[in-house]
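Chain A, query sequence.
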Amino acid sequence: MPAGHKLFSRNPLRRTSDRIQAWSAFLIIMTLMLVSPWAGWYVARGTYRDEVRTAEWQRLHRFQVPAVLLEDPYTPAGGANAQGAPVLPMTARASWSGPGGAVRTGTIVADHDMRAGSKQMIWVDERGAVASRPMQNNPVFDALLSAVLVAFVLIGGLAGLHRIVVWRLNRRRMLQWQAEWLVIEPLWRHR
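Chain A, predicted structure.
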């Protein structure tokens, strides 16, 4: 039997609540089919554009330069476990030349096997201050992932909405059935 048959059925035994439930399911499915692709495309496009823009900005404002350690790396106070192994990253004072050629000195995160005088590559911003490494994201993957997440959120939201409608309709049906049973049951008792 075609799916539309239930929706437009003129069966005299169908209750209004059955029709409301059928229309609710139909409208939710149609909304999902019409809105989900558009919302997924919109979010994916925005995610892709933002990540490409961020990667380009970081490419122009983050630079990798060699830093020379001025001391051996050490674990900050409270940064070791009971066996003495570092839990926090080891740091050391170091000097480096920024993009403009100015020599800077500061504390950097250093590998535990390095010693004073060793060179380590660090990331700096356009002023020469230590900065985080640029993002290593894949804009296409992240855009697809965000589109899929939007689709799942829409599916979950609309399915939840449908469950609420069905729950309310079932509650109403049970109340109607109970009221009708209160009228019919005394007649059956006297047989």
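The chain has two domains: 3-7+15-57+137-185, 63-124. The chain has a mean pLDDT of 85.
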